[in-house]
Amino acid sequence: MKKLTPFVIQGISIFLGFTFWGAGMAKLFYEHQFFGWIGPVWLIEELTPYGLGLYGEFIAYSQIFIGYLLVTTRYKLLGSIMMIPLIGNILMVTISLNWRGTPIVLGFLMLLNLFLLWQYRDYFRPLIDENSLRYPIKKRMERTRNGHLVWLAGFVLQLVAIQISYLNWTIACGVVLVGLVLSALSFKADKIEL
Q1: Which of 7, 156, 166, 180 is the most buried if burial means most Cβ atoms within 10 Å?
Q2: Whether the predicted model's global pTM rises above the 0.70 cut
């Protein structure tokens, strides 16, 4: 079971990341032509009559950023912490607009996210009890500036791909893939010393 747990944690992180990253990209890609399984892709258009189009864009960009933190697995802890208010915001929009079924899906995704956060419970003890520093924090892989910069370059390509999608969908998808590969290589960049 211990050997299965890291695989399950990575799988949940990638699943949640793909779910929200894909949903955000689909909202902003030209004519919503991006892969994703949750929606609605027309959220911005749906909120615009209420004067909330900018809020819809904020949700889309938040989904992209937080989802990308998780799908690339480099920043699982940060992404899963940020996922709680993101899901809360989306839940309030869906309840306010009386959408059915979406709160159930969001509840399931929140449970997966809480399971992911549970794996980092040793980090949360000092937030609750400042004197808890005597309890050990599990050693995790060291991250370097090189790795962070490589990951960031991959993320920037995601944002560039959105703009490219208005010119050429195929090239935009290629830029997305290059960005994902680049971010995945950030773990290798951690091992390179300059």
Answers
A1: 180
A2: yes
